[in-house]
Amino acid sequence: MSSKKAKGINPELENAINKLMKEVMADTTATITDKMRVLDRALKLEQLKMKDADSEWGSGFGLDDDEEK
């Protein structure tokens, strides 16, 4: 029996990043570096969600559509 990996973003991971972002942003002792790291993770998650939702994401890379003939 082969098990297939589920597609999409793990909801537990998404919830953990959201919770972490709320906690760090509310923490008055957190450094700007800490806050930026959490924001970076949240932005990366959004990027992955967009990539997962659009099956053609990145498929046009390297095409010369913008060049005049």
Question: Which features does this protein show?
Answer:
single chain; 69 residues; mainly alpha; flat
Rg value: 18 Å
The tally of strands reads 0
* Share of residues in strands: under 5%
Order of secondary-structure elements:
HH
Structure classification: mainly alpha
> What is the residue-averaged pLDDT?
80
Share of helix among residues?
Answer: 55-70%
What composes the largest sheet?
none
Gross morphology is flat
Structure report:
The protein has 69 residues and is an all-alpha fold. It has helices spanning 11-26, 32-53. The chain starts with 10 loop residues before the first helix and ends in a 16-residue tail after the last helix. The model has no long low-confidence stretch (mean pLDDT 80).
Task: Summarize, please.
The protein is 55% helix and 0% strand.
Record the SSE blueprint:
Blueprint: H1 11-26, H2 32-53
Helix pairs in contact: 1-2
